From TrEMBL:
Entry annotated with the keyword Thylakoid: no
Protein name as annotated: DUF2231 domain-containing protein
Organism: Halobacillus locisalis
TM ranges: 16-36, 48-70, 90-109, 121-140
InterPro entries: DUF2231_TM
Keywords on record: Membrane, Transmembrane, Transmembrane helix
Residues covered by the DUF2231 domain: 11-145
Length: 147
């Protein structure tokens, strides 16, 4: 790989791309809550954020295993293995939650505009936000707890 390629495509890819989906998912969760009062604007805005965030989240989830070896070299902590499985499971549930939320938002926008679906989507957004928070918490504990 050329020197330029090493700077353009980082190795491991996971830490470089994981933060964008997190930001998009959290803002989309806020928009789903705001859609309880102004559904047209905020539901459409949330749909864009969810689609881009969920695509990025799926990519982030599948690049995670490639980052483990490098993380073990940089952060030789006993916490790495202790928290890795919890982080992985929470990341998986975060991704699944936002995939379901994305499908639900498009269902709301194109087929069924009812208040129960809108409230369910807001609840899913809050659940997804909490899952993302705890996923990041365990990532931090996994890498930095022993420092």
């Amino acid at each position: 790989m050329s020197i330029l390629g090493a700077y353009i495509i980082p190795d491991p890819l996971h830490p470089a791309i994981v933060h964008l989906p997190i930001a998009l998912w959290l803002v989309s969760s806020l928009f789903l809550l705001l859609a309880l009062w102004r559904p047209d604007f905020f539901m459409k805005a949330a749909s864009w954020l969810l689609v881009i965030g969920t695509i990025g989240g799926i990519i982030s989830y599948y690049t995670g295993p490639n980052a483990i070896g490098v993380a073990a070299q940089i952060f030789p902590s006993s916490s790495l293995n202790e928290h890795l499985n919890t982080h992985r499971v929470l990341a998986q549930w975060s991704t699944i939650t936002y995939i379901v939320t994305t499908i639900g938002v498009f269902s709301y926008l194109f087929w069924k505009k009812n208040k129960y679906l809108k409230i369910s989507l807001a609840v899913l957004g809050v659940i997804g936000g909490l899952l993302v928070f705890f996923t990041g918490h365990y990532a931090g504990r996994m890498l930095y707890e022993d420092l």
